[in-house]
Design goal:
The structure is a homodimer.
Chain A: H1 3-11, E1 13-17, H2 21-32, E2 36-40, H3 44-52, E3 58-60, E4 71-74, H4 81-88, E5 97-100, H5 106-112, E6 119-124, E7 145-149, H6 156-168, E8 172-175, H7 178-203, H8 209-218, H9 221-227, H10 234-243, H11 245-267, H12 271-287
Helix pairs in contact in A: 7-11
């Protein structure tokens, strides 16, 4: 570690509000990199576990613990972010950088910026199937995208500080405006949930019990892959749909037009056009970074 | 091996027409189990490789080689099955069992039964991403479903013989009528192809280049899983749609109704109903055998 970087880390104090999988994993990596980490949780049991596991330097249930932090990261669920930000702000020192880890950015940035102008939205695209402080792990964000959504008001020096912290995780930081982020995740993360869920919803409509049983018996990896995200956490799926509703609806309409087109071609028995369609989608998928190390869905 | 089983295998002679991944892998396993295997291919090079690899006992490009076979398995692509069956039948001994490995059963059974009343449709649900005789491997069908579709005319003794051969592969045989098979695979294999392809087709409609690029950069395992089968072999996808058109169309209509329902609930911001929907699909997926050893898509 270079001397200047060492001095920055020595004096930089990071606060993490919410010590679940994401908050706990961020704390672990940053503490390991030499930063001082204060954790705040609603649960004193979570704090005890975090201290026992060496995830944080100090912590408690009281937000006033954040008064000395240079950077505070809100790691609470999407639907609690603005409320928690409002409770946190009175305790922050004037130049503190506030950021979050929510999966949707427009409503969060719009909700928190009036409360704290130095707020910079963030979204680390990583996760596991497990939740909670017990699931926190080192290197969760390595090689994963970590989106930051600065706005016209963002202080470039504060943005640079945040980028340094993200780079410290081994993550690949990406900058974009909140709107572009939300449209992009609507495509690749929120739309697939409903496309996949509709497939599960449809098969459950099968009225012939013999067909339904055989379908279950024959279900292979293709079925399992296509239905994975549609069978995930219901509350998370609806929360994402709620907060990213308009971009998601636009993409659902676009998806339905594609489906209508496929159905029409099949009704017309236009095999040449159907082949061209699958040749097109084959190419689209090849262009997506399928062979890279892929981040898990957050 | 029990003596009677040994005698059966000693005297049973199996013919394989088409020595690709499936035909070659069947030949390997049956030969290893002690059966005599004759292979027929259009390509003398394929025969040479099959002999070199020990996949077959003997073989060639001439269908008359099948004259001594007790069982003949047609392992050619779906759209060539009936034509090849017509060419094969004149060379079969009167009591020979004829079967196939096609992924759709109604048109195959309807097309071949008039040519050879002892025809019994089959569908081993196994495969790999590779094709051809070079990809042939032992134990490809172990623990995988292998559907047989007897009809009212099927001779029970011949069916039992075929079941014995399937069991010899370590596969799990399942019996059903051709119609039930085609409806079941429409659900779990053919519908997902188009559901997944429409997702790739939709994202390719994104007109904002910044959003399109970011979507690509953020695509994670959820996106990759949901789009896998839609980015597969175009000719295979269309061939399945062509031969299983009516069952597939019915299921596409059902899927579109589910999608319309989701869109309506999202327009109405009915979060409770959307949550109930995802709770339902979560349960449906849990009921499917997700934690079993899963066969690859064929």
């Amino acid at each position: 570690m270079a001397v200047d970087k060492f001095l920055i880390s020595l004096f930089m104090h990071i606060g993490i509000v919410g010590l679940g999988l994401i908050g706990g994993s961020l704390a672990l990596d940053w503490r390991q990199a030499g930063y001082t980490v204060t954790g705040v949780s609603r649960s004193s049991q979570t704090i005890a576990i975090a201290q026992e596991r060496g995830v944080i330097d100090q912590g408690g249930t009281d937000l006033s613990l954040l008064h000395a932090c240079d950077v505070v990261v809100l790691c609470v669920p999407l639907d609690r972010l603005v409320t928690v930000a409002a409770a946190v702000c009175p305790h922050l020192q004037p130049n503190a950088i506030l950021t979050d880890v929510g999966s949707v950015k427009v409503p969060v940035v719009q909700g928190i910026t009036p409360l704290w102008p130095q707020f910079i939205g963030g979204h680390p695209m990583a996760g596991t199937a497990d939740q909670g402080i017990q699931a926190a792990q080192s290197h969760l964000f390595r090689q994963r995208p970590y989106v930051l959504t600065p706005t016209a008001q963002t202080n470039p020096q504060q943005l640079a500080q945040l980028q340094t912290l993200v780079a410290e995780l081994g993550a690949r930081w990406l900058l974009c405006d909140p709107e572009t982020h939300d449209r992009a995740v609507a495509w690749i993360s929120h739309l697939p949930i409903w496309v996949s869920a509709a497939l599960l919803g449809a098969v459950a409509q099968e009225s012939n019990p013999q067909t339904a049983t055989l379908a279950q018996q024959l279900a292979s990896s293709g079925w399992q892959d296509t239905t994975r995200v549609g069978g995930g956490n219901p509350e998370l799926g609806v929360c994402l749909a709620q907060y990213n509703r308009e971009p998601l609806l636009q993409r659902l309409y676009c998806y339905r037009r594609e489906l209508d087109r496929i159905i029409a071609l099949m009704e017309q028995q236009d095999l040449a056009a159907l082949t061209a369609y699958l040749q097109h989608t084959h190419t689209v998928r090849r262009q997506s970074p399928a062979n890279h190390t892929l981040p898990q869905e957050f």
